[in-house]
Amino acid sequence: xxxxxxxxxxxxxxNLEDYLYEIAPSPWVLIINxxxxxxxxxxxxxxxxxxxxxxxxxxxxSLTTLRFDFxxxxxxxxxxxxxxxxxxxxxxxxHLIPSWMKEDYPVPTDHLSLFLDPGMAFGTGNHETTRMxxxxxxxxLGSTEDNVSLLDLGCGSGLLSLAASLLGYGPQIVGLDNDxxxxxxxxxxxxxxxxxxxxxxxxxxxxxxxxxxxxFDYIVANIQADVLKxxxxxxxxxxxxxxTIILSGILAYEIEDVIEAFNKHAPKKFLEPSxxxxxxxxxVKFSRLG
Length: 290
Known about the structure:
- This protein is an alpha/beta fold.
- It folds into two domains: 2-73, Alpha-Beta Plaits (2-Layer Sandwich), CATH 3.30.70; 84-287, Vaccinia Virus protein VP39 (Rossmann fold, 3-Layer(aba) Sandwich).
- 31% of the residues lie in helices and 28% in strands.
- The chain has nine helices and 14 strands.
- The protein has a seven-stranded mixed β-sheet, with helices on both faces. The protein has a four-stranded antiparallel β-sheet with strand order 2-3-1-4.
C-alpha cells in the first residue's frame, strides 16, 4: 500500500474540503489546522499508479503544483492500526469494549456492554465527540418513556445506534450514513452484539434524503458543524414538536453559531439548549417545547 502526503496552503483549504466532500468516500484525509487555516492531505492507495492518478486530479482541481511525499507501508498494518487506538471505555454502568477483547474484559452482571469493531469507519467511542453523544444518551434515560424512536445521522461504526438499543431506546432505531462501507461495518457490529433485528442501517445522504423515513423522538447527529448548519431544515423535517436533538462533531468555538442556526429556523422555540464540552469539542442537546 502507498501512503502519500502533502501540506496544503490556507488559500485552498476550504475549496479542497468542499471538493473532497463531493467525492466522498475517498482515500483522502484532510486535516485542518484551525489556528492558521493551513492543512495537510494524506491518501492511501493500493499502488503507485492509483496514487498518481488521484494526485493528478487534486492538482488539476487546486491549480497548484503540490509536492507529495510517498511512503510504502504494509497493507495489513494499516488495516489493523486503528486497534492500537481503541481501548475499553466505561461511563456509569455502560461499557464499550473492542470486540477482540470480548473474552478478556470482565463486565459486572448488572452492567451493559457493547462490543465493537470500527474497522475503517469513524466511531470508536474514544473520540470526544462520540463520547459526549453517548453520555447524553445515557444521562437521558431517566426522562424517556417506552417506545422512543431514534435516528443516528452519520452512524459510522453504528456505535450510537447500537448503544441506544442496549440502553432501552426503540423499538425503532435507524442509523444513516452516506458511506456504504460504514453501513456494512455497522451491520457487522449489530451481528456481533445480536442486535441485527433491533436496529436498521441504511445508506443515505442527508443533503439528498428523498426517502420518507418518518419523524423521530431522538435525533443524534455527530457530524461537523458546517454540515449541521447546512442541514438545519432537513433535520427538523425528521423531528416533531417534542423531539430531542443531540448535535456533536462541533469545535467549541463553533457551538454558538450552530445553536443560533438551529434556533433561527426552529418551527417552535427550543428550551434553553444544554451544552457539553470535552477538550476542544462541544455538543448541544436541544429539548423542544410543544
